[in-house]
Amino acid sequence: MRYSRKLAGALYAAPVAVFVLVFFVAPLLLVGRMSASDWPLLAGDLGINMPDNYAGIADNPLFWPAVGFTLKYTGIVVVLLIGLSLLLALIVADRRKGTGFFRTAYFLPTTLGLASASLLFFGFYSPAIGPLDPLLEALGADPVSWLGTPTAALWSTVVLIVWKFAGFFMIILLVGLQSIPPDVYEAARLDGANRWQSFRHVTVPLLRPALGLVLILSVTGSLLAFDQFFILTKGGPDNSTVTVVQLIYREAFQRFDLGAAAAISVVVLAALVVINIGQLRALRKDHQ
């Protein structure tokens, strides 16, 4: 009987185990093998060249600018996303007339794919078909090159990402807000706490698990940014908006060097693991 239960459990877990093995473990091992090899895209594996691919990362003229830009973009997006999504969650937390409509409206951009949203904003920013420049001209202002300068390209992309994901993070924080017992706020009010004091000393501490999840998701997603910059800027102008993932793409499919691309991928993966472990430890320490 016990053996049959173990067999049944193994059979239930087998599909998931096969999925993880085929689509995660095997590709990860292959990337590790590529990173240690001379592996042109069109020629295949030409043998181990360890540690040439890793040694060449620092010599890549785009690597450090890409790292700096990715970190800058991540910092801006994370701060704006968390701030705006928390504000939206606080706005729609109370049940009153019209709340359902605004919850749906704020969440709606999340249902659009990132590539589709990027193409939509590319049309908005276009001087040929977009509505923004004609609107500025109607108001007597000069047209703006939304994607033509490094600063404008960065902030135009940030606007897209905040518009796209603020509603999703709002839902996560809204669930966290609704899990806070009303009695806690009532006790704070009886102790003389005003709204700001209640928010600072009650809402924020009890919302830390949800804020931690939002932080991890937004940091990881921003560090792995690709679609939005690939569609909107192609890394321009003058390679000023190249992210680390775009650099991996360029090494693999423009310079046809899978070995170098795999080495950068391994470094990025290691950095993400360290960052996420650090975030989880910090959140556990604050929660204890």
UniProtKB/TrEMBL annotation:
Membrane topology: Multi-pass membrane protein
Alphabetical UniProt keywords: Cell membrane, Membrane, Transmembrane, Transmembrane helix, Transport
GO annotation (BP), single: transmembrane transport
Domain ABC transmembrane type-1 stretches: 67-279
Keyword Transmembrane appears in the UniProt entry: yes
Pfam families in the cross-refs: BPD_transp_1
Transmembrane segment boundaries: 7-30, 73-93, 105-125, 152-175, 210-231, 258-278
Compartment(s) where it occurs, according to its Swiss-Prot or TrEMBL record: Cell membrane
Record's GO cellular component terms: plasma membrane
Family, per entry: Belongs to the binding-protein-dependent transport system permease family.
Protein name: Sugar ABC transporter permease
